[in-house]
């Protein structure tokens, strides 16, 4: 907070009070006419206001002064939590009377709301951050289809992390599964429920591998830039969210470069990222996840019976297999920096129908069950024999409903 902020606010508070005295901020009733308004011109009596008018103005300004002190005290308590004890002691004493409209509490609400827009006096300590876990859970339950594991892991992991008074390290989640199964959808939902401005928040940074880091020959330059961007974001916003899309295409040295931000903080010249969240979105592991889901279906078991314990270990083993991907060649896995591997299961026919329904509703369009079936049948399903899983998940559903528009 700048040194001039309190004095500037005091000046604004006084201006608001004086504006109220002159009716400048509007009225809920008829504003009493001030003593100087009794005649058209103060020169009516030879240029002199007269003793009576002088005393009236003096009394009026004295009331403003007394009020501004009390209201400044109230503002300091409300915004900076200073002087609250003194305010409580004075609550029992009568406050000076004030007959003009819209003065006092109303002005203070306007002023404190204006100050809070700078993000300094909210429950989280930063008004850019909302951390609406209840809304997140409700939206995941209503809009994320066929992903019982992802719903449970994401809500529990994020909620536990945010409730921890002193986390030892940043929260690192790695989303895995086929394209169109909901990885980006959940990432966007997380941003929208943790931050007032969602993905547009200055607390959120999104990196797309092939867009932001397309050429391996510039990897050293990328490393410097990436570390600088993370450091600057965390300095600006202690609870930051970093999303890495197409993470399997990141050069392994980039992953190793940002490893210190995800490790336990040793306070040795490193910015403190212990309140930050890192999300990695990847198609890696999709085949293993799909094989498990297919095995359960062939065995006549519900997909909801698939547990994290059963799937996570298999997923981790596939990610560790030697391959041309950043995960296998970096040190993220062997140093256990990823807290949760979140599997996104392949989507079945009825899940695609639910996605189609959501797409119609989002655009305010009328639909029928027959229409939803038509949209679902337009998708490609695999494997060849069973035709059980949508090859694209729900990725192109919103575009396909354009065929049904009048």
From TrEMBL:
It comes from the Eukaryota. Residues 347-404 form the Torsin-1A C-terminal domain. Keywords: ATP-binding, Cytoplasm, Endoplasmic reticulum, Glycoprotein, Nucleotide-binding, Signal. InterPro entries: ClpA/B, P-loop_NTPase, TOR1A_C, Torsin. It is found in: Cytoplasm; Endoplasmic reticulum lumen. GO terms for molecular function: ATP binding; ATP hydrolysis activity. Residues 1-26 form the signal peptide. It holds the Pfam family TOR1A_C. GO terms for cellular component: endoplasmic reticulum lumen; nuclear envelope. Belongs to the ClpA/ClpB family. Torsin subfamily. PANTHER family: TORSIN, TORSIN-3A. This is Torsin-3A. It comes from Lophotis ruficrista. The gene is Tor3a.
